[in-house]
Amino acid sequence: MSPAAAEPSEGSLLLDDQLCFALYAASRAVTARYRPLLDELGLTYPQYLVMLVLWEQDSISVRDLGAALQLESSTLSPLLKRLEANGLLRRERRVDDERSVALRLTEGGHRLRERAGQVPLAIGDAMGLTPEQDTLAKQLLRLITANVTD
Amino acid sequence: MSPAAAEPSEGSLLLDDQLCFALYAASRAVTARYRPLLDELGLTYPQYLVMLVLWEQDSISVRDLGAALQLESSTLSPLLKRLEANGLLRRERRVDDERSVALRLTEGGHRLRERAGQVPLAIGDAMGLTPEQDTLAKQLLRLITANVTD
DNA sequence: CACGTATTAGTTGTGTGCGATTTAATCGTG
DNA sequence: CACGATTAAATCGCACACAACTAATACGTG
């Protein structure tokens, strides 16, 4: 920090004072960094996040997937259709509750997990934070998310 | 932090270990928080960011605006057309370099600044960070952005 | 068990984001 | 000054994101 820097942070309309812009820019920059890696897997970034959830817990409902990713069904439905068209998962109506759709990985969906294993390391490396900074950043981001949500 | 928490952070494929997801979720949550406030101004969130830049520096080129926001012309061109259609700015070809387009606020565009004045306080309030946390978060996010941008 | 309410996915419409390409204008080097 | 390289915007195609709405199913209470 330059010692003589003014502190107009509160209520300023200057772009560079705004935490919200730092957040928005960082999010897009990180996604851009993922893009070439995920291209090789045939995934977009949101599709990759869906696959993370499914590798963790197969046969999840669209509803629970949306809760995990904080995404609406209007976002997930077309995305899941693309993953199904690409042969990574199947969508099946639950027999016990036909309102619900279970997402089940195909063989190809499971196999992709091995190829994805390198991705988090590569990204973590690119971010270049110390473990302490990484933990701190996650804590702050979760605090912001929690405070801002309702 | 729970003291006994394992540290599988490096190389984990668990969604909740990933800084990238915390970032993505926080960015969307903050944007969602802005939405009702910006609705009253007739702006979307990216449009609001454009207006922040223009209030700071009028008569900027599309190129420099893109550099400030880290957005491509393919994103900005349609967005700027909407702002022009809503009467907030005009786009004029530069006389000294006809490749370039200068963005100039209209009277209405300037007037909107007063109504937008409350927005940063309201958002800062909702985020609920201490000034120290706010500064720290901005530093970490800028570090990530810089590291990740080749 | 009938019927109003709630829940779950999906559809539609609008607005980003970005890669690839296009068009027009300017620059640089011989 | 000629002409290939570069630059600035815009266009196109695709994939999110989300609000508003719809359709189908399940639930709960009288």
What does this 3D model show about the protein?
The structure is a homodimer of 150-residue chains. Chain A is mainly alpha-helical and 150 residues long. Helix content of chain A is 63%, strand content 8%. Chain A has seven helices and three strands. In chain A, a hairpin with a 7-residue loop joins β2 (89-93) and β3. In chain A, α1 runs antiparallel to α6 (118-127). Chain A is globular and about 55 Å long. The two termini of chain A are 33 Å apart. At the A-B interface, α1, α2, α6 and α7 of A face α1, α2, α6 and α7 of B. Chain A binds a DNA duplex (30 and 30 nucleotides) through residues 28, 31-32, 35, 44-47, 61-63, 71-79, 82, 97-101. Chains A, B: GO terms for molecular function: DNA binding; DNA-binding transcription factor activity. Chains A, B: Pfam families: Staph_reg_Sar_Rot.
What is the CATH first-level class name of chain A?
Mainly Alpha
Largest interface: A-B, 63 and 63 residues
Separation, N- and C-terminal Cα atoms of chain A: 33 Å
- In this structure, how is the largest beta sheet of chain A organized? 3 strands, antiparallel
Topology order of chain A in helix (H) and strand (E) letters: HHEHHEEHHH
Overall outline of chain A: globular
Q: How would you name the oligomeric state of the polypeptide chains in this document?
A: homodimer
What is the percentage of strand-forming residues of chain A?
5-15%
- CATH fold name of chain A: Arc Repressor Mutant, subunit A
Look at the helices and sheets of chain A and give the structural class: mainly alpha
Q: List the strand order in the largest sheet of chain A.
A: 1-3-2
* Low-pLDDT residue intervals, each spanning 5 or more residues of chain A: 1-7
